[in-house]
């Protein structure tokens, strides 16, 4: 029966063709959960459960914690963008299976001239569609338009020229295109071009400033070593590799920590046998992870901790802070890093926790000290970082605990007698929290500044603000500029406080009930340069 002028078989065929074009790495509109929005999303992985295909997607320009598994009814297959990147180029060149439908995906490999447009473009999308029903035929050498040879095709053109000179019996046309930075060569030897194109997947050439800079990367071992080498960034795997696709996907469905069940945001390298379970159970005192509530109950009968291991250096009302040495309590520190990775995307997971100190904030009751959040810092920081990593657990967010952690880190810097700053770059939530705290602390100092005489205007310097708040100078200046407080007037910088900013400050002051009391902090800074870590 026709539906809207289209037969049912044809409609099903169109839908099937569209879904077959959905591959890992492609981008297409996807309907977000509980909304009618269709943002562009990248397909990270595909799986099949009970005969139903599911697609793990990352919404472009959205935070990774919104990534999710979706079914095919939430995909708009009419606007599929093929994968891009070097790794996808290789996969496209080495496979004969089409990744898209219609004329956009020719079955034959492209010619040399077609592959010169962009070396980062997939091979399958850079060739003009062939005429229907007629096999593609190479153009006549005399009528062929001379292409501009760049990138990986320079080697091919050079080899073609050399072969053409040897084969005097064959007629060929050579065109030389010269510009300021490169020389381009092309011939009409189609058989050699086809063989070189098929070999291009294992032989790559790079051009920089002319033909003399052509470099051959024949050794595949070097490429493997380059992609698997450890990186200095927060990701756990190199981009474009299979491991990178795994680390971009949430692998833990649920965790149970104390009286809270929490849905994780990001990937964390917990043991494989636990990741496949519907929930991971974690002891809220020692952070040991087990596979079931029965195992957790057995563990609690043996666990003698009711608070984090380490020294309690601060307590006021129900809020406590514990200082934990990453060398003395290595197992707890490693479990804490694993737990934090579930909610921090760019955290680099170090199993060597010796160079770090961990400050864990807890809510205390008659059952023990329950973890709320923590921050870590290096024992010795050459750049005066007072925070390496900071996290508030999701059940305690939006309760001013983040600013309390930040305030405590600067209180430690005041005891050390120096300014401090968090490690950069900050996450999206971290930047919001720090910018809010900096604004509040700087405004508090400015409003408390008094004039030396009645007729004078109150004066304060950037160094004074840094000394009173322990905030680093760069952070003070960036905060003042973001609030548009600094103005240049008559040869000097002046601070102008606007009414709406003051109203916001008064509202923030009335809302913040939790503050750090320096009188409750019992802590002495240590000189770690004289101590063995």
Number of strands: 23
CA radius of gyration is 31 Å
Cα distance, first to last residue? 77 Å
Shape: globular
Question: Can you list the strand order of the major beta sheet?
Answer: 15-16-17-18-20
Q: Count of DSSP helices?
A: 14
Strand content: 15-25%
- Indicate the percent of residues in helices: 25-40%
Mean pLDDT: 74
Could you name the ranges where pLDDT drops below 50 across 5 or more consecutive residues? 88-155, 168-240
Note the main sheet: 5 strands, antiparallel
Helix and strand composition category: alpha+beta
What does this structure look like?
The protein has 533 residues and is of the alpha+beta class. Helix content is 29%, strand content 19%. It has a 5-stranded antiparallel beta sheet with strand order 15-16-17-18-20, with helices on both faces. The chain has a 4-stranded antiparallel beta sheet with strand order 3-4-5-6, with no helix packed on it. Strand 1 and strand 2 (6-7) form a beta hairpin. Helix 10 (401-416) crosses helix 11 and helix 11 packs across helix 13 (473-482). The relative contact order is 0.06.
């Amino acid at each position: 029966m026709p539906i809207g002028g289209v037969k049912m078989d044809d409609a099903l065929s169109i839908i099937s063709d569209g879904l077959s074009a959905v591959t890992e790495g492609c981008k297409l509109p996807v309907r977000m959960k509980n909304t009618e929005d269709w943002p562009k999303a990248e397909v990270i992985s595909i799986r099949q459960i009970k005969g139903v295909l599911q697609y793990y997607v990352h919404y472009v320009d959205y935070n990774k914690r919104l990534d999710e598994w979706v079914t095919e009814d939430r995909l708009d297959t009419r606007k599929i963008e093929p994968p891009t990147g070097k790794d996808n180029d290789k996969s496209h060149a080495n496979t004969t299976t089409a990744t898209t439908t219609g004329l956009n995906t020719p079955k034959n490999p492209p010619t040399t001239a077609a592959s010169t447009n962009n070396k980062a473009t997939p091979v399958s999308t850079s060739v003009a569609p062939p005429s229907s029903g007629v096999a593609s035929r190479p153009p006549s050498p005399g009528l062929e338009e001379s292409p501009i040879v760049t990138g990986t095709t320079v080697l091919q053109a050079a080899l073609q020229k050399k072969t053409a000179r040897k084969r005097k019996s064959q007629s060929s046309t050579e065109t030389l295109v010269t510009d300021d930075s490169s020389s381009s060569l092309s011939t009409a030897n189609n058989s050699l071009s086809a063989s070189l194109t098929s070999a291009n997947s294992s032989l790559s050439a790079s051009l920089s400033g002319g033909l003399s800079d052509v470099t051959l990367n024949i050794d595949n071992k070097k490429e493997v070593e380059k992609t698997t080498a450890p990186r200095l960034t927060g990701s756990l795997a190199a981009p474009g590799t299979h491991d990178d696709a795994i680390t971009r996907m949430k692998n833990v469905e649920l965790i149970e920590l104390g009286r809270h069940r929490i849905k994780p945001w990001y990937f964390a390298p917990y043991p494989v046998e636990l990741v496949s379970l519907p929930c991971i159970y974690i002891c809220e005192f020692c952070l040991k992870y087990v596979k079931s509530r029965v195992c957790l109950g057995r563990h609690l009968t043996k666990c003698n901790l009711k608070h984090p291991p380490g020294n309690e250096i601060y307590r006021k009302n129900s809020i406590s802070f514990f200082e934990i040495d990453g060398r003395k309590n290595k197992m707890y520190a490693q479990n804490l890093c694993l737990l934090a990775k579930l909610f921090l995307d760019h955290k680099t997971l170090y199993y060597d926790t010796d160079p770090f100190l961990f400050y864990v904030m807890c809510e205390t009751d008659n059952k023990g000290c329950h973890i709320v959040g923590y921050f870590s810092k290096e024992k010795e920081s050459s750049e005066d970082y007072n925070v390496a990593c900071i996290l508030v657990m999701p059940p305690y967010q939006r309760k001013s605990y983040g600013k309390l952690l930040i305030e405590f880190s600067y209180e430690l810097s005041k005891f050390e007698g120096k300014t401090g700053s968090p490690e950069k770059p900050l996450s999206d939530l971290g930047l919001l929290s720090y910018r809010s705290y900096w604004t509040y602390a700087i405004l508090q100092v400015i409003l408390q500044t008094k004039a030396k005489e009645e007729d004078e205007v109150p004066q304060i310097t950037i160094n004074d603000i840094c000394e009173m708040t322990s905030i680093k100078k760069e952070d003070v200046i960036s905060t003042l500029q973001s609030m548009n407080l600094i103005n240049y007037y008559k040869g000097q910088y002046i601070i102008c406080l606007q009414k709406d900013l003051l109203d916001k400050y008064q509202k923030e002051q009335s809302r913040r009930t939790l503050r750090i009391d320096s009188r409750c902090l019992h802590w002495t800074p240590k000189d770690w340069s004289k101590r063995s870590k």
